[in-house]
Structures are given as structure tokens and as C-alpha cells.
């Protein structure tokens, strides 16, 4: 009798059930937010190593829900990827980033700034993806040379050959391709060899260790820079927080830096550029 007590009762504490309910709720709110275009974009500036000039910015999705408050992108992007919502979310990000970037002022040297957009595996697997990229450029009036698509290793892990072909067609438009979070997957060298890319983004986990000159990460960073350069690609270091890291990455030959040392992601990039210039 005592064994049965409490077993089937609704009041019994079940952390698994609570977590599933919370997640389900988050998913429902996210679906609504995407449908009603209630997400926003923050833009994190990228700076040339030698000139210190801002050369572009990465679009990062932000969600401040009325009920849930601000939700971390790591959390809602994961949910979006697991539920397929990332296709609609990603389409909105691509179009919004193109429209917003079309009205950015030019950078320090008078050159136009590039906008980088993260693209996920499911998104790139849509047969309509190429057409959507072209449409976003046409509708916004953003020159193709001002758009960069960032792909992670997992995004292309599927069929390398057809992905490479798609990327070639996108590059033929004048759009550039960056290999994101480079070095964190299992097939980095294969990707470097087989995918047509313009840029390699060294992951923050390597940048964190770069000041420890004897660390394997520091050795690997040097290797990635020289390999990328010999293949004609430029190198971006992400998550740069200190001047010491920036100095070392510069001496290793990195071309572009991104991180809190330069700026955190900005809700108003034009305003930030303006206050920086003035
Ligand atoms: P990511 O593409 O690697 O973006 C860089 C992340 O590092 C951003 O986090 C950025 O805020 C953070 N970060 C930049 N500099 C520093 C630094 O100096 N120190 C530290 N500690 N962090 C830094 P965020 O905005 O939370 O985004 C997390 C991830 O969510 C992104 O990682 C990206 O994978 C994903 N994500 C964000 N927006 C989108 C999107 O529109 N589409 C897709 N598919 N994924 C997105
Ligand atoms: Ca990225
Ligand atoms: Ca990254
Ligand atoms: Ca990263």
C-alpha cells in the first residue's frame, strides 16, 4: 500500500516532465515570434588587423520575448534547428540583414561594409535556398559583394559534392563564403580542401589559448592561418577579448578580428559607427 502511495499522483515532482513542458512552451513562443517577425538582429563589427578599420559585421539573432524575457541565441537556435523552425527563422535573418545592411554607411576607408549571415544545415538543404539568396539581394538592393554566408562544418557534413556545387553557384553571384567555428569539427582539413570558400573563421576556443605559446591550440592556429593563406583564403579570428590576443593573432597573419575587444554585438550598428567616428 505504501508503495503505491504517490505513484500516480499528479503532484509528484518530475523534473523531466517540467523540462519538457518548458521546452514545448518555448518552442510555441518561438514559432509565434518567427511568424510575427518579432526577433531582431544585433551586428558585431569585424575589424581589419592592420588598418583597424571596420570591414563588416556579423548578424546575430536576438529574441526578447514578452513573457519569457531575453532568451539566449544558443538556446533558441538549438530549438529552432531541432524543430525545423530554423528554415523560416533563417530566411527572415537573411532578408532582414540584407535590407538593413543596404542602408549602412560606408566604413573608414570609404569601402562598403559587408554583412555576414549564419546559415544552418537545414536551410542550405532547401532546394529554394539559392533562389532565396538571389531574391534577398534583388529586393534589398544590397550588392552581392556585400554579403557573406557563414557555414559551420555540421552544415555541410551531408553531401559534400552537392554542397560544393551550390556554394560555387552562390559565389558566382559575388557572395562570399566563410567556414565558421573552424577547427571544432572532425573534418576541417577536408572542408578546406573541398569547399569553395573565401574566409576561414578560427573558433573562439582556439583564440582563448593563443597567448599560451606552447599550447597545441596556438600551434594549430598558426597552421590554419598558413594553410588558409596558401589556398587563397583570408582568416578571421573570433572571440578576441584582449589586446594581447589581438597582437599575437596579428603576428600570426590573421587578417580580420572579431570580438569584445573591438565591440560587442550592436543593436544599432549605424549609431555605433557614428559615435566611433565622432
Ligand atoms: P557564432 O556564429 O560563433 O557567433 C559568435 C558568438 O560569439 C556570438 O554569440 C557572439 O555574441 C559571441 N562573441 C563574440 N565575440 C565574443 C567575445 O569576445 N567573447 C565572448 N565570450 N563571446 C563573444 P551569440 O550571439 O550568443 O550567438 C551564439 C550562436 O548562435 C552563434 O555562434 C551562431 O552559431 C548562432 N546564431 C546566432 N544567430 C544566428 C542566426 O541568425 N542563424 C543561425 N543559423 N545561427 C545563429
Ligand atoms: Ca557565425
Ligand atoms: Ca563563429
Ligand atoms: Ca564559435
UniProtKB/TrEMBL annotation:
Residues 23-278 form the EAL domain. It comes from Kineosporia corallincola. This is Bifunctional diguanylate cyclase/phosphodiesterase.
